[in-house]
């Protein structure tokens, strides 16, 4: 009888120990368990680990372009956003994150980031009636715009940009120079185009339709002013030589003034 009681007690103790083992001290909860990097499927974790360092903890106020910007997200297409995340932007500080391009993220993780960025921060209902120039030069050409021309872009710069960035683009302390070769080496033509179109709210850079006394920039004007800025990407010595063929905005103004004084006519640089 005593033996049966002992067995019963041991059985009950063993059963209680087995049922309570998941509460043993030091055992991690499901949320705390280690997950292989390729299996992470949480947007907040993926963004914090891969994006926040440059774009800010909530997609704003980082060194790089804000991603928590509805205007930008309504300019860039879904596939373009995936491509930038997956493949990066060569010769800039934006690395590739897709595994096929040397990064740490699977295709599913890239899709998750792109989809959640757009759905969480895009606010498409606010931009139903907003018409923006095409995101890329390729799209602009497909829609009938011509290639960007630096000489024509100098005139566009004078009209739309010189009030803030200075006569020759060298700016002041704020805003700074947009023709500094060191800056231009860090950004792509597409990055310049994006900034011209949607601005950067975090540094008080207006978009192409704000604070204008004339019409918003057309697709052609965007391409032209980007071509002018890209032409300044040459080195210091080479850029001085280039000024002989690509006039600066101040040189254009001087030429117009001379032309008017000698002919008595009013002409407009287009």
Task: Describe the overall structure.
The structure is a single chain. This protein is mainly alpha-helical and 270 residues long. The chain folds into two domains: 37-127, Orthogonal Bundle (Cytochrome Bc1 Complex, Chain D, domain 2), CATH 1.10.760; 137-263, Cytochrome Bc1 Complex, Chain D, domain 2 (Orthogonal Bundle). It has 14 helices and no strands. It has helices at 2-19, 43-50, 52-55, 70-75, 78-87, 107-121, 137-142, 150-160, 162-165, 181-184, 189-198, 219-231, 236-242, 249-263. The protein is elongated and about 110 Å long. The model is unreliable at 235-244 and 265-270 (pLDDT under 50).
Topology:
Layout: H1 2-19, H2 43-50, H3 52-55, H4 70-75, H5 78-87, H6 107-121, H7 137-142, H8 150-160, H9 162-165, H10 181-184, H11 189-198, H12 219-231, H13 236-242, H14 249-263
Helix pairs in contact: 5-6, 8-12, 8-14, 11-12
Give short descriptive properties of this protein.
Cytochrome Bc1 Complex, Chain D, domain 2; mainly alpha; 14 helices; disordered C terminus
Short description:
It is built from 14 helices and no strands. The longest helix has 18 residues.
CATH level-1 class of the largest domain: Mainly Alpha
> Helix tally?
14
The count of DSSP E runs of length 2 or more, i.e. the number of strands, is 0
Q: Give the biggest beta sheet.
A: none
